[in-house]
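pls design
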């Protein structure tokens, strides 16, 4: 075993030669969230986002980042008014895409929220695991334009990493001097939950602090063309009709940008330094769907059941489900059937606040985790907006405004293009003074 300090508190971690009994003890270590940083289309920062989300305010509108009139789809969840120069040093601007700038800002806010001074910590006691769905599309588009129109000598050297999936983890770790276990997970919309699970694994191995979450932004012509090929993007122009999961009018989804970055620590470490804890990452599971047209059952239900088992909870213990909410009728049907199979007919409140932000891809899961933790603290489930559930829907969908409720345990679901399913179970701590 080796010792470490985080803000003056002793913590313990093990090496590969740690005795089995000690490993077993660490494997049961409770990983809690002590910091939240949010960049979302309907609110920048934890408080602004929560106020908008509980009130049902949407950030979806016609794209302004470029002229979308020549494209079939024109709606997106853009973050308005974000000026990176107001938050980041000038030296970082030439080498970063929009998505990395958002991730860096969210990470800084999350660390501040957790009360962490990274300069006082040992560099190998801090790690970063984030998720990405597309990397730096806007940066790459600009450099490809330079290559094709002016020549290779006009391509930025920063192109070598600014477009890459792992760039957010790399830039966060460099900026804050974090040299512990780090990496990136790429599994589309499910990736954000997978990254948080990897971070929890590192906490259980004894790493004192992990930065995790997901961020995506590909709202440029090149990224927009790529998103359109998914066949899932809504083609209309009315923001109120663009993203209607679990509604008979559903006809696709609206892409968005942003996500959330979280700070994870062991409960013992957080308690020892007097830090506030939003809640515990209590359970996780991931499955992969069988190939289409094989006649085999989708695997989302299995992911839910395994996540509950990992948390040591029964279905009746869950107070709310944050749905993946694809907005694609067949995918919505599969998800509704899976939730009903585990919890029963309209037996648990279900919500999809992402109807206010659009699909954030790798950022969606972490943002839903953050939202669920804020819902626990506030005793309020944010609504699914614009949706009119079918009369025969098996889901108790939270519509028409936020719903007051005691939330002690929440389930967050995310699914990725290609068959990824991920489920995270969150449980409340005793503290309930946020947001």
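designed seq:
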């Amino acid at each position: 075993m080796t010792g470490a300090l985080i803000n003056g508190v002793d913590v313990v971690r093990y090496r590969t030669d740690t005795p089995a009994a000690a490993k077993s003890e660490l494997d049961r270590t409770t990983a809690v969230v002590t910091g939240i940083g949010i960049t979302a289309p309907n609110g920048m920062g934890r408080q602004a986002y929560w106020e908008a989300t509980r009130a049902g305010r949407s950030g979806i509108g016609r794209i302004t980042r470029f002229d979308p009139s020549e494209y079939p789809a024109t709606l997106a969840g853009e973050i308005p008014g974000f000026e990176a120069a107001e938050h980041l040093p000038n030296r970082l601007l030439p080498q970063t895409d929009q998505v990395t700038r958002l991730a860096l800002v969210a990470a800084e806010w999350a660390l501040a929220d957790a009360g962490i001074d990274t300069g006082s910590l040992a560099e190998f006691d801090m790690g970063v695991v984030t998720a990405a769905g597309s990397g730096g599309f806007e940066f790459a588009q600009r450099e490809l334009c330079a290559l094709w129109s002016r020549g290779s000598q006009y391509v930025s050297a920063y192109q070598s990493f600014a477009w890459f999936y792992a760039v957010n983890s790399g830039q966060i770790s460099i900026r804050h001097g974090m040299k512990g276990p780090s990496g990136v997970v790429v599994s589309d919309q499910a990736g954000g939950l997978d990254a948080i699970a990897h971070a929890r694994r590192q906490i259980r191995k004894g790493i004192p602090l992990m930065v995790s979450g997901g961020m995506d932004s590909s709202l440029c012509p090149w990224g927009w063309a790529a998103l359109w090929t998914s066949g899932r993007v809504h083609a209309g122009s009315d923001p109120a009709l663009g993203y209607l999961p679990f509604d008979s009018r559903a006809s696709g989804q609206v892409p968005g940008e942003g996500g959330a970055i979280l700070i994870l620590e062991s409960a013992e470490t957080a308690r020892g330094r007097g830090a506030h804890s939003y809640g515990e990452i209590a359970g996780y599971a991931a499955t992969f769907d069988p190939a289409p047209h094989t006649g085999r059952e989708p695997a989302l239900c299995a992911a839910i059941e395994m996540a509950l088992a990992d948390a040591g909870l029964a279905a009746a213990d869950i107070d709310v489900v944050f749905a993946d909410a694809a907005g694609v009728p067949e995918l919505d049907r599969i998800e509704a059937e899976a939730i009903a199979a585990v919890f029963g007919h309209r037996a648990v409140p279900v919500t999809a606040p992402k109807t206010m932000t659009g699909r954030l891809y790798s950022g969606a899961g972490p943002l839903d985790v953050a939202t669920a933790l804020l819902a626990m603290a506030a005793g309020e489930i944010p609504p699914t907006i614009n949706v009119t559930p079918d009369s025969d829907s098996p889901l108790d969908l939270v519509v028409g405004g936020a719903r007051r409720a005691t939330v002690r345990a929440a389930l967050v679901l995310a699914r990725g293009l290609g068959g990824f399913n991920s489920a995270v179970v969150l449980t409340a701590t005793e503290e309930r003074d946020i947001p």
